[in-house]
Amino acid sequence: MPARTLVVCLLAGVFLHGQGPDIRSIHLVTEEQYGRGDYAAARRTVIEALQARTGPVDLHRTGVLLRLLGRADHLLGDFEAAGRSYRAAISSLERAGAAARLVLARAQLDYASLLDIGGPSRDAQRRRVAALAIYEQDLGPEQPQTLMAQGEIAVGYLNLRNFPKAESLCLEIIDQWERSNLPPSAHLAKTWDTLGFTLLETKRIQKSAAAFRRSLALNEGLYGDSHPVTLEARLGLASAYAAGREFDPANEAIIRAEQVAAGSLATDHPMRTMILLTKVKVLRAQGLSTEAKRVEKQFRLSADSAQRKRQSISWGELTQVPK
Predict the structure, then answer these.
(1) N or C, which end of the chain is more exposed by having fewer CB within 10 Å?
(2) Alpha-carbon distance 66 to 85, whole Å?
(3) How far apart are CA 109 and CA 115, in angstroms?
């Protein structure tokens, strides 16, 4: 399971057109909480909103809140809870009708990213394609949300190891974003990450590192250098530098990733295990087998801890990292 499958929904906002002031207010609060990396606070905000419902069930409102709850659980690393919330959100939004189409598309994209955690999923890619069709029909081909959905499809191609399609789509998105003079975005940064992993898989190491640096610069400019959204690029950079036998910057990227995770993620969060896995790869590349075995033992303990918390993540899934 590559690091990208754990960061996929960071800062992925929901489309709010046509929603009531209650949902707009909740969304603004949770976005501020996500923006500072406080996912637990965002989860509490959504749960309080769900519990505060009065009167008949509003399928649209309920679906939006369940999608936000799934997103929070996803970011917190509780994948089983996230899956339940996403499925319930999709069911509610499908019954809500046409007014909920855009939120339904976003929920399908989020759920697709969760499905890929267990390994490449063709069902996940089908959901992405269906979501993109909604964005293209309702918003048009050159809007940020549509480009974001295309970026999710590129992630699916990468997970399915269709590297030519992943690379081509990433380059198209980046070109369109720049030609349209759209503002910097976490979605654009994610596309650079996807391109970076694609280039890394196809052994174009220097170009891969350059792509990860672009992603890191974008997210640091938007959210600072201590936000967990930067972890994907940092781990990608560490892998790229190690593949190019540039071990000093590889180790620096790992150290900074550990510092960021320590300040924002629980000790048994799956991203912490991905950092340990990447560290093992870098140590092995340097020929430091004794140290690599020590860190690998830490990784196994971390993976076991995640299992005890009923997160749907296994040793086999966790070891599916980019070569």
Answers:
(1) C
(2) 5
(3) 10
Residues 6+ apart with CB under 8 A from 140: 146
Question: Which amino acid would we find at residue 78?
Answer: D
Distance CA 119, CA 5 (A): 9
Using CA atoms, how far apart are residues 197 and 194, in angstroms rounded to an integer? 5
pLDDT of residue 302: 64
Mean per-residue pLDDT, 267-284:
89
CA distances from 138 to 13, 31, 98, 101, 209 (A): 17, 23, 11, 9, 36
Predicted confidence (pLDDT) per residue in 151-174, tens digit: 999 999 999 999 999 999 999 999
Q: Could you report how far apart the first and last alpha carbons of the chain are, in Å?
A: 11
pLDDT grade, residue 54 (50/70/90)?
low
- The two structure tokens encoding residue 37: 């990396």
Q: Which residue has the tokens 């087998």?
A: 289
Which phi and psi (to 5°) does residue 163 adopt? -65, -40
Q: Where are the alpha helices (DSSP H) in the chain?
A: 4-7, 21-35, 39-51, 59-76, 79-96, 101-115, 122-138, 144-159, 163-179, 186-201, 205-223, 231-243, 247-264, 270-285, 289-308, 315-318
Q: Which residues of 102-111 are buried (b: 16+ CB within 10 A; e: fewer)?
A: bbbbbbbbbb
pLDDT at 84 over 50: yes
3-state secondary structure of 239: helix
The first and second tokens of residue 194, run together, are: 């996807």
Nearest-10 Cα torsion for 301, 318, 323, 284: 0
Q: Which of 31, 46, 16 is nearest to 145 (CA)?
A: 16
